Amino acid sequence: MSVATWPPDAVPPLDMSTEEVCLLAVELCEYHAEFAELFFRPEQRHWASKYLEGLLLPDGGKSVEKLALRVAGGNVRNMQQFLGEGAWDDAAILAKHAALVAASLRDPAAVLIVDGTDFPKKGRHSVGVARQYCGATGKVDNCQAAVFVGYASRHGYTLLDRRLYLPQEWFAPAARDRWRRCGIPAGTPFRTKLELAWEMIEKLHTAGPLPFSWVTCDEAFGDSHEFLGQLEAAGLRYLADVAVTTRVWPERPPTRVLPARGQLPARERRAPEAPAPVRVDQLAAQLPPQAWRTYQVKAGEKGPIAAQFAFVRAVAAREGQPGPDVWVVLRRSRSAPPELKIFLSNAAAETPREELVRVSGRRWPIETCFEEAKSNLGMADYQTRSWRGWHHHMTLVILAHHFVVRLKLRHKKGHRR
């Protein structure tokens, strides 16, 4: 069995002495001080510290009211005002956060991960809530939907940015009253989840201090030719989950320059005699047994997780026309019956197979981030209905998650950095 080399998946465990536990409050103060100057007013700095403290408390609900009752000196009204009305700048704080992540998790081989997560809600007054598919309940449900970007390196993983999705119905004239009550900024345009994802990735790519080698995503993003084209145009290397119905050409088909028609310029198109592209699951079925090899994908709780892989160079089909040369990475589980997963990548032809295997197993950290943040840090416990409140809450949850990750790294057993 071939092994895709990658350091252990788990972040170092939080295993500290009594003396180190006593230093946690000091460390949180030091962490908060990194962001303090970005809050405009002294009371904002104060309540930011209290809110972070509340998010990090073990057990218990993490709504504003419950946090205010649990932290020393908490005040429900003041914390509500800080979260839902405070005019502090999320963008500046997240930029500082990215710089701190670069200091703690920096890795040139790191992966940016884009994924969505949903928040079931009752009623229709919370910003962005609508009847739509909800991953949390596995059905069409009343919920808010959001897109996040995470960072996974050999040192650990955390979240970097977030965007709330506003469904089309929120742009109808009938929704203007809800729009006003939720404080959605005037002129906010409709953006698809794909556009929200690209907005965050482009920002991190052009202005961020974080090095990364890959972008990964699930089918919701990988099936978009436009999204993959944006990554290609930016020179970003991706390995994207795609549907088994995705079509490619095993060899580049012949093309011809068709004559111009009206205002349209002459352009190269697939020749009439060219074969049709084939589905990737059909391509997988045609491969000989010797094309498949077993690789270790990652370490699991019960031992290494392995799967069979095959790799095919092909030509992507874009709107029925030949697109870029790509890797089709086929992963087949060793269960019965086997489950087939397909990845598409614009990586160079000389990319080692082991590297493609490694990256194919690097989308799970963002799902773990969601689980950790929802279970332990109150990500889904908010009760604010406003645009500003939702973004403020998610920003502080992101900071709290990175604080825990950094804490674990600094407090390895027998070693405090």
What does this structure look like?
This protein is α+β, with helices and mostly antiparallel strands. It has two domains: 2-218 and 366-416, no CATH class; 239-256 and 266-361, no CATH class. Helices cover 36% and strands 26% of the residues. The protein has 14 helices and 17 strands. It has helices spanning 18-22, 24-36, 42-56, 64-70, 76-84, 90-105, 176-181, 193-207, 219-222, 225-233, 280-286, 353-360, 364-376, 387-410; strands spanning 2-3, 111-120, 130-134, 139-153, 156-165, 214-217, 238-242, 247-249, 255-258, 267-270, 278-279, 293-300, 303-318, 321-332, 340-345, 411-412, 415-416. Strands 1, 2, 3, 4, 5, 6, 7, 8, 11, 12, 13, 14 and 15 form a 13-stranded mixed beta sheet that branches. Helix 3 (42-56) packs across helix 14 (387-410), helix 4 crosses helix 5 (76-84) and helix 6 (90-105) runs parallel beside helix 14. The longest helix is centred in the last third of the chain and has 24 residues, at 387-410. The radius of gyration is 24 Å and the shape is globular. The two termini are 37 Å apart. The model is unreliable at 1-18 and 413-417 (pLDDT under 50).
